[in-house]
Amino acid sequence: MTAVRLFLARGSAATTVDEIAALAGVSSRTFFRYFATKESAALPSLAPFVEVLGGVSPTVDSLPGLLADVDDALAGLIEETTILDAAASRDFFMLLAQDTAVRDAAGTLLIRLTDLLLATLRRAAPQADALTLRLAAGHRVAVFQAVWSHWHCALRDAGGDVEAVELPSVIYRRAVALPRQA
Predict the structure, then answer these.
(1) What are the structural domain ranges in the chain?
(2) Are 133 and 118 in contact (CB under 8 A)?
(3) What is the pLDDT of residues 49-99, one digit of tens each?
(4) By the 8 A CB rule, do 172 and 143 touch?
(5) DSSP 3-state assignment of 177?
(6) Phi-psi category of residue 99: left, alpha or beta, with phi > 0 → left and psi -120 to 50 → alpha
(7) Which of 11, 84, 118, 149 has its CA 20 to 30 A from that of 95?
(8) How many Cα atoms occupy the beta-carbon half-sphere of 98 within 13 Å?
(9) Count of C-beta atoms within a 10 Å radius of residue 175
Protein backbone atom coordinates (compact mmCIF):
# COMPACT_ATOMS: atom_id res chain seq x y z
CA MET A 1 0.00 0.00 0.00
CA THR A 2 3.01 2.26 0.45
CA ALA A 3 3.70 2.35 -3.27
CA VAL A 4 0.02 2.93 -4.07
CA ARG A 5 -0.13 5.95 -1.76
CA LEU A 6 3.07 7.46 -3.17
CA PHE A 7 2.04 6.81 -6.77
CA LEU A 8 -1.37 8.38 -6.21
CA ALA A 9 0.23 11.46 -4.68
CA ARG A 10 3.06 11.93 -7.17
CA GLY A 11 2.78 9.38 -9.97
CA SER A 12 5.00 6.36 -10.45
CA ALA A 13 7.45 8.22 -12.71
CA ALA A 14 8.20 10.83 -10.02
CA THR A 15 8.49 8.28 -7.19
CA THR A 16 11.77 6.49 -6.53
CA VAL A 17 12.40 3.02 -5.15
CA ASP A 18 14.40 4.65 -2.35
CA GLU A 19 11.32 6.65 -1.32
CA ILE A 20 9.06 3.60 -1.33
CA ALA A 21 11.61 1.54 0.61
CA ALA A 22 12.22 4.30 3.17
CA LEU A 23 8.50 4.77 3.80
CA ALA A 24 8.07 0.99 4.14
CA GLY A 25 11.00 0.80 6.55
CA VAL A 26 13.23 -1.40 4.40
CA SER A 27 16.38 -0.91 2.36
CA SER A 28 16.34 -0.58 -1.43
CA ARG A 29 18.19 -3.89 -1.58
CA THR A 30 15.44 -5.58 0.44
CA PHE A 31 12.82 -3.95 -1.80
CA PHE A 32 14.34 -5.67 -4.86
CA ARG A 33 14.25 -9.06 -3.13
CA TYR A 34 10.47 -8.82 -3.30
CA PHE A 35 9.74 -6.65 -6.34
CA ALA A 36 11.23 -6.58 -9.82
CA THR A 37 10.11 -3.00 -10.45
CA LYS A 38 8.73 -0.14 -8.42
CA GLU A 39 5.38 -0.52 -10.25
CA SER A 40 5.10 -4.14 -9.17
CA ALA A 41 5.13 -2.95 -5.54
CA ALA A 42 1.66 -1.51 -6.13
CA LEU A 43 0.25 -4.81 -7.38
CA PRO A 44 -1.10 -7.87 -5.57
CA SER A 45 1.25 -10.81 -5.15
CA LEU A 46 0.87 -13.99 -7.18
CA ALA A 47 1.96 -16.07 -4.17
CA PRO A 48 -1.62 -16.77 -2.96
CA PHE A 49 -2.54 -17.93 -6.47
CA VAL A 50 0.50 -20.21 -6.65
CA GLU A 51 -0.49 -21.72 -3.31
CA VAL A 52 -4.18 -22.21 -4.07
CA LEU A 53 -3.63 -23.51 -7.62
CA GLY A 54 -0.93 -25.85 -6.36
CA GLY A 55 -3.64 -27.56 -4.35
CA VAL A 56 -5.78 -28.36 -7.40
CA SER A 57 -5.80 -32.13 -7.70
CA PRO A 58 -4.93 -33.94 -10.93
CA THR A 59 -7.13 -36.84 -9.80
CA VAL A 60 -10.31 -35.34 -11.25
CA ASP A 61 -11.34 -37.52 -14.19
CA SER A 62 -12.91 -34.85 -16.41
CA LEU A 63 -12.03 -31.36 -17.56
CA PRO A 64 -15.37 -29.94 -16.31
CA GLY A 65 -14.64 -31.47 -12.89
CA LEU A 66 -11.15 -30.00 -12.92
CA LEU A 67 -12.49 -26.57 -13.87
CA ALA A 68 -15.04 -26.81 -11.06
CA ASP A 69 -12.15 -27.48 -8.65
CA VAL A 70 -10.22 -24.50 -10.08
CA ASP A 71 -13.32 -22.31 -9.76
CA ASP A 72 -13.78 -23.41 -6.14
CA ALA A 73 -10.13 -22.62 -5.42
CA LEU A 74 -10.30 -19.19 -7.05
CA ALA A 75 -13.64 -18.32 -5.43
CA GLY A 76 -12.17 -19.32 -2.07
CA LEU A 77 -9.17 -17.09 -2.67
CA ILE A 78 -11.46 -14.23 -3.69
CA GLU A 79 -13.49 -14.78 -0.52
CA GLU A 80 -10.35 -14.62 1.64
CA THR A 81 -9.17 -11.41 -0.01
CA THR A 82 -12.57 -9.71 0.07
CA ILE A 83 -11.76 -8.63 3.58
CA LEU A 84 -9.53 -6.04 1.92
CA ASP A 85 -9.96 -2.55 3.17
CA ALA A 86 -12.47 -0.86 0.86
CA ALA A 87 -10.37 2.33 0.81
CA ALA A 88 -7.31 0.35 -0.30
CA SER A 89 -9.36 -1.20 -3.10
CA ARG A 90 -10.58 2.23 -4.17
CA ASP A 91 -7.04 3.62 -4.15
CA PHE A 92 -5.73 0.71 -6.22
CA PHE A 93 -8.43 1.15 -8.88
CA MET A 94 -7.85 4.90 -8.94
CA LEU A 95 -4.15 4.25 -9.50
CA LEU A 96 -4.89 1.84 -12.35
CA ALA A 97 -7.08 4.48 -13.99
CA GLN A 98 -4.47 7.22 -13.84
CA ASP A 99 -1.02 5.62 -14.09
CA THR A 100 -0.04 3.96 -17.36
CA ALA A 101 3.10 2.31 -15.97
CA VAL A 102 1.16 0.64 -13.16
CA ARG A 103 -1.60 -0.38 -15.59
CA ASP A 104 1.04 -1.95 -17.87
CA ALA A 105 2.53 -3.81 -14.90
CA ALA A 106 -0.97 -5.03 -13.97
CA GLY A 107 -1.40 -6.33 -17.53
CA THR A 108 1.85 -8.25 -17.20
CA LEU A 109 0.64 -9.66 -13.89
CA LEU A 110 -2.57 -10.88 -15.53
CA ILE A 111 -0.53 -12.60 -18.25
CA ARG A 112 1.57 -14.30 -15.57
CA LEU A 113 -1.60 -15.37 -13.77
CA THR A 114 -2.99 -16.82 -17.02
CA ASP A 115 0.28 -18.73 -17.57
CA LEU A 116 0.17 -20.02 -13.99
CA LEU A 117 -3.41 -21.21 -14.40
CA LEU A 118 -2.60 -22.77 -17.77
CA ALA A 119 0.32 -24.68 -16.22
CA THR A 120 -2.00 -25.90 -13.45
CA LEU A 121 -4.56 -27.11 -15.97
CA ARG A 122 -1.88 -28.83 -18.08
CA ARG A 123 -0.49 -30.57 -15.00
CA ALA A 124 -3.90 -31.69 -13.83
CA ALA A 125 -5.43 -32.55 -17.22
CA PRO A 126 -2.61 -33.61 -19.57
CA GLN A 127 -5.13 -35.40 -21.82
CA ALA A 128 -6.99 -32.17 -22.71
CA ASP A 129 -6.11 -30.32 -25.88
CA ALA A 130 -3.93 -27.20 -25.58
CA LEU A 131 -6.47 -24.75 -27.04
CA THR A 132 -9.22 -25.82 -24.65
CA LEU A 133 -6.89 -25.40 -21.68
CA ARG A 134 -5.63 -22.00 -22.89
CA LEU A 135 -9.20 -20.77 -23.40
CA ALA A 136 -10.26 -22.05 -19.99
CA ALA A 137 -7.30 -20.32 -18.30
CA GLY A 138 -7.85 -17.06 -20.16
CA HIS A 139 -11.56 -17.14 -19.43
CA ARG A 140 -11.05 -17.56 -15.69
CA VAL A 141 -8.51 -14.73 -15.51
CA ALA A 142 -10.77 -12.43 -17.56
CA VAL A 143 -13.69 -13.23 -15.26
CA PHE A 144 -11.49 -12.69 -12.20
CA GLN A 145 -10.46 -9.26 -13.52
CA ALA A 146 -14.03 -8.31 -14.44
CA VAL A 147 -15.33 -9.39 -11.04
CA TRP A 148 -12.90 -7.13 -9.16
CA SER A 149 -13.67 -4.23 -11.48
CA HIS A 150 -17.43 -4.77 -11.05
CA TRP A 151 -17.08 -5.10 -7.27
CA HIS A 152 -15.12 -1.87 -7.09
CA CYS A 153 -17.77 -0.02 -9.13
CA ALA A 154 -20.60 -1.49 -7.03
CA LEU A 155 -18.75 -0.56 -3.86
CA ARG A 156 -18.25 3.00 -5.13
CA ASP A 157 -21.94 3.24 -6.04
CA ALA A 158 -22.87 1.99 -2.56
CA GLY A 159 -20.78 4.71 -0.94
CA GLY A 160 -18.19 2.21 0.31
CA ASP A 161 -20.72 0.10 2.21
CA VAL A 162 -19.30 -3.42 1.81
CA GLU A 163 -22.47 -4.94 3.31
CA ALA A 164 -24.58 -3.41 0.51
CA VAL A 165 -22.82 -5.16 -2.36
CA GLU A 166 -22.62 -8.75 -3.48
CA LEU A 167 -19.39 -10.50 -2.49
CA PRO A 168 -16.82 -10.90 -5.27
CA SER A 169 -16.68 -14.68 -4.65
CA VAL A 170 -20.44 -14.93 -5.35
CA ILE A 171 -20.08 -12.79 -8.48
CA TYR A 172 -17.17 -14.97 -9.66
CA ARG A 173 -19.12 -18.21 -9.22
CA ARG A 174 -22.08 -16.76 -11.10
CA ALA A 175 -19.86 -15.40 -13.89
CA VAL A 176 -17.97 -18.64 -14.57
CA ALA A 177 -21.30 -20.45 -14.76
CA LEU A 178 -22.64 -18.10 -17.50
CA PRO A 179 -21.17 -19.95 -20.50
CA ARG A 180 -22.64 -23.21 -19.22
CA GLN A 181 -26.09 -21.60 -19.03
CA ALA A 182 -26.01 -20.21 -22.57
Answers:
(1) 1-42, 43-181
(2) yes
(3) 888 887 777 666 678 888 888 888 888 888 776 555 666 777 888 888 899
(4) yes
(5) helix
(6) beta
(7) 118
(8) 15
(9) 19
Q: Give the CA angle between residues 105, 107, 109 to the nearest 5°.
A: 70
Of the candidates 9, 4, 78, the residue with the CA atom closest to the CA atom of residue 35: 4
- Residues 89-135 have pLDDT tens digits of 778 888 888 999 999 999 998 999 999 999 988 888 888 899 999 99
Q: What is residue 58's three-state secondary structure?
A: coil
Residue type (1 letter), 177: A
The one-letter amino acid at 12? S
User: pTM score, two decimals?
Assistant: 0.81
Q: How far apart are CA 113 and CA 138, in angstroms?
A: 9
Which residue type occupies 78? Answer: I
> What is the secondary structure of 102-165 as a DSSP string?
HHHHHHHHHHHHHHHHHHHHHHH-TTS-HHHHHHHHHHHHHHHHHHHHHHHHHHHHTTT-GGGS
Q: Which CATH superfamily is domain 1-42 in?
A: Homeodomain-like (1.10.10.60)
SS3 62: coil
